[in-house]
Amino acid sequence: MEENQSWDEFLVPYQQAVEELKIKLKGIRKQFRKENLHTPIEFVTGRVKPVDSILAKAELRNIPLKHLETDMQDIAGLRIMCQFVEDIHEVVRLLRNRNDIKIIEERDYITNKKESGYRSYHVVFEYPVQVIEGEKIILAEVQIRTLSMNFWATIEHSLNYKYNGEFPEDIKLRLKRAAEAVFQLDEEMSQIREEIQEAQHMFSYSKRSSTEE
Ligand code: 0O2
């Protein structure tokens, strides 16, 4: 951010990027549904980080305001919610294949969950935005998670506000237990899905062979 720049001015390309990316990511969902295929994307949200959160994070991480563009990767933030853990990996593959974004970092908090119990897959990428002055490349972050991981993260995030980041030990423990329950739920759902798919496969196979007789 330049010294004489206003927040409104600074945030214009980020707002533009979030709006464009929401449309593009929702477009993936539409295409899957049109083809009558299981869509790996359940829903998409996006936001530009509020100025007070930018300032708080900059102070916490010692990021000078003039380095915001390069050092704060989630001013433009998108979230993709999926039904199953397998869908998260499918979404990551889809993102890697796009040529309108350039991935610069992936953080896999699914395999390596955070100390808090937080699980999600983060992809940081460069995205070109067309502004009046020409093209501006900004950084954006997309967080990809299941519906249940999102449920946990949303509640933990709002409790964080209440406790100002300092959870009492018993709450911390209960949140970790809740995160474990979310993990078990996702596992169970994946297994149920696999069994349904196998049963459908066997059903269509036996139907085919009976009509061929
Ligand atoms: P917001 O906008 O309020 O969500 P790190 O150094 O790893 O702690 P970094 O480098 O910013 O942090 O990257 P990270 O962890 O990949 O991404 C940070 C964002 O991930 C957070 O944004 C949250 O959205 C989410 N996140 C990370 N850890 C947790 C967690 O324990 N609980 C919840 N609910 N969300 C988490 P911000 O900056 O908090 O802002």
From TrEMBL:
Name of the protein: GTP pyrophosphokinase family protein
Ranges for domain RelA/SpoT: 46-167
Coiled-coil regions listed in the entry: 175-202
Database matches in Pfam families: RelA_SpoT
Pathway membership, UniProt: Purine metabolism; ppGpp biosynthesis; ppGpp from GTP: step 1/2
Alphabetical keyword list: Coiled coil
Highest taxon above the source species: Bacteria
Keyword Iron-sulfur attributed: no
Transmembrane segments: none
